[in-house]
Structures are given as C-alpha cells and as structure tokens.
Amino acid sequence: QVQLVESGGASVQPGGSLRLSCAASGSIFRINAMGWYRQAPGKQRELVAVITDAGRTNYADSVKGRFTISRDNAKNTVFLQMNSLKPEDTAVYLCNANLLKRLGSSWSVYWGQGTQVTVSS
C-alpha cells in the first residue's frame, strides 16, 4: 500500500506564511513528479505547483513569486512554502505523486487526504 500524508495546514492572516509537507510511504520503487493541488468550496481542483525528480518546477500563475515547491527525494517528501498568503488561497491543499510501486509495474498517481489552509483576518 502507498500512503501520502499532508501536514502543515492552518489558519493564518493575510500576508502570512505557511509550509506544507507531504510524505509518501509504503511500497514505493520510484517517484517521478510530485505536486500540490487545491480545491476551494464550490470550485474545481486546480494545480498549484509540481516538481519532477530532477527538480524541474511549474507553478500556477496565481502563486508564482509567492509559493515555492521543493522535495527531499531520499525521504519521498514534497514541501510547499507559501508566503504572502491571500484570502483567495483558502482551500484544501492536496498532494499527489506519480510513482512506480515496483520495477516493471505501471506508473500510478496517488493522492493524499488534504490539509486545510484558511487565510482570513
């Protein structure tokens, strides 16, 4: 079994910062891309940022310059540093990982349960 567990969500004031973490564990041979998505009430899930195992990153326009994605390949963990938070960043943040469970298996995408981020004064 594979599990992705997010942590670090909280309630903060506008302009504040948070650091989210997501650790993947279980039967994992290799992880390719890891990403953060978010879903606000009544809205579709949207990509926030993604990072490959080579360190290439991609960000949603709405978070460029404010959020930074990074990862620790040895610990199968991805981070999201969020600065200058705005009320519109309020959402459940979910991580995912595109991974191989064993050599010769197929690539599969796994999701975490999500962590709530609320930005409000």
What do these coordinates show?
The chain is mostly beta strands. Strand 9 (91-100) and strand 10 (108-111) form a beta hairpin. The strands form two sheets. Strands 2, 4, 5, 6, 9, 10 and 11 form a seven-stranded mixed sheet that branches. Strands 1-3-8-7 form a four-stranded antiparallel sheet, with no helix packed on it. The chain is elongated and about 50 Å long. The protein contains no helices and eleven strands.
What is the ordering of alpha helices and beta strands? EEEEEEEEEEE
Radius of gyration: 14 Å
The major beta sheet can be summarized as:
7 strands, mixed
Number of strands: 11
User: What portion of residues belong to β-strands?
Assistant: over 45%
Structural class: mainly beta
The rough form would be described as elongated
- Multimerization state: single chain
Low-confidence region ranges: none
Total of helices = 0
Distance between the termini: 40 Å
The share of residues in helices is under 10%
- Mean pLDDT over the residues: 96
